[in-house]
Amino acid sequence: MAEEKQAGVGDAPRDARARIVDALMALAAERRFEEIAIHDIAERAGVSLADFRDAFPSKGAVLGGFTRRIDRAVLSHPDEDLAGEAPRERLFDALMRRLDAMAPYREGLREITGWLERDPLAALAMNQSLINSMRFMLETAGIDAEGVAGAFKLQGLAFAWRRVVGVWLDDEPDLAKTLAALDRALTQGERAVAGIEAMERIAAPLAAFAQAACAQGLRAGEAVRRRARGAEPAAPAGPN
Predict the structure, then answer these.
(1) Which residue of 42, 92, 138, 191 lies most exposed, with the fewest beta carbons within 10 A?
(2) Cα–Cα nearest to 70, from 142, 162, 128, 133
(3) Rounded to an integer, what distance in angstroms lies between the CA atom of residue 109 and that of residue 201?
(4) Per-state percent for the chain, helix, strand, coil, to nearest 5
């Protein structure tokens, strides 16, 4: 009995978060995002403002919760048939599965996309959430996202994804335009990343030399300071 009660307590917050996310996406399909108040979301979700506050601090945070929902949908069901394929093909598949997971919320996403275009500050704030999602899309495809080149890949993929979603929102059911836009974006990204990685390889020896020279200079400066301290005259002795 205690175990059942504990499971119920643990499930309640998760259920409230899910209902809040669903409520926001439903409202976004009905009205401008700027016109949706927190109390509107809470009322649609059937939760109190106190429960809303426990779950999310803002509307933007609810969108972050929606993004994580889509991430989980993609990451929880990898296509094992593509395990031996090239990373580019695995990334293409992951992003298409992402669109499949987003499809039930298409109208709400149309309004949210419009809101982000109308509010550059909101778009900037949401950029980090998108980059975090793209990090996991690269990871599931086996593509490194670390270092300078990794940061370039993440931001470049985030920009490309926004363009692809814009095409997808107005595409026909066969998604021919979306497929072409995604293929084009990944091809352009591959070329750009290849250039960045080549620059990194060229710059690596220069960076190592600069680091070594800096370290040698610091050691030399410390040696000079130690010698200077050793040459300082002793303080005169005080009267007996």
Answers:
(1) 191
(2) 133
(3) 40
(4) 80, 0, 20
